[in-house]
Amino acid sequence: LFRSYAAKQRRRIESVLQKHEVSYTFVETISPGHAEELAFRYGESADVVVAIGGDGTVHEVGCGLIKGGCKAALGVLPLGTGNDYAKMLKLPKKLEPAILALIQTPVSVMADFGRLTIQENVGKKVVDFINQAGIGFEAQAAHLASRLKMIPGKTLPYLVAVLRTLRKWRFPSVKIWLDEHLYYEGRFILVDFANGFCTGGGFKLTPHALLDDGFLEVCIFEEASIPRILRVLPKTLTGEHIHLPEVHMTRTRNARVTSQIPLPVHADGEMLSLEAMVVEVEIFKNCLKVITAK
Fold first, then answer.
1. CATH number of 4-111
2. Rounded to whole angstroms, how far apart are CA atoms 8 and 156?
3. How is the chain split into domains, by residue range?
4. Measured between alpha carbons, how far is 62 from 155 in angstroms, rounded to an integer?
5. How far apart are CA 97 and CA 119, in angstroms?
6. Contact indicator for 81, 54 with CB cutoff of 8 Å
7. Quick one: fold of 113-286?
8. Among positive and negative, which fits the CA dihedral 242, 248, 251, 257?
9. Labelling 64: which of 136, 231, 240, 269 has CA 20 to 30 A away?
10. Whole-model pTM above 0.85?
């Protein structure tokens, strides 16, 4: 399953598949959410449903397979901007080696996935996620980054979005419960729940996250001054931020985040809400079969 921007690679992909006598069906998505519908449909009969694109495509295809009962395996050909989930799978960056990783004695893992229940003043929505979900500053930055298509590179658009968002962020006060216990109360920058170690094309907010351990890695950033945030920001590219006093790192099976003012929420880089008042998070262990590199 691929979006239009990945169509130019179709001939190269087909050449490799035909060379190795692999049976396949190419389907182009035509609108947001279409990949999820297609994955649900093809997951009934296919052995593997491959998301050709970036983390947004992986998110939709993964969610479709989950809704269909996880009958087919999820494969990934990383042709997007960030490719955060592909990094977790240790997939080759170059196209042909990535294809071969899927078709030549593929290795699979039974991965976890997360589920968000987002309560807004106007109603409730439930959304699954594959790699990572963020609440607060990071989600607002992801929302802006998605509109900065004119900026080249993988990490640069997200970095520009972070700096622009920082000027207007108001550090809302939240309560965060982890495994039914109140873990944090106060003003915050962000909270991140992750199966993968990477977000935003290279920011290692949760460097110790694992795909299949039955836990979500949690990163909470407390309120800090803007000069302090700017000094800390480069450390999130390497994971060194986890030792800072403003940062809380832990793991959980479920969580609940509440606020008196609306919060932005995203999952796998896809904006889900700008008006969340309560967000509940839970993990489903070893449910989704995913093809990984050896």
1. 3.40.50.10330
2. 24
3. 4-111, 113-286
4. 23
5. 43
6. yes
7. Tumour Suppressor Smad4 (2.60.200)
8. negative
9. 136
10. yes
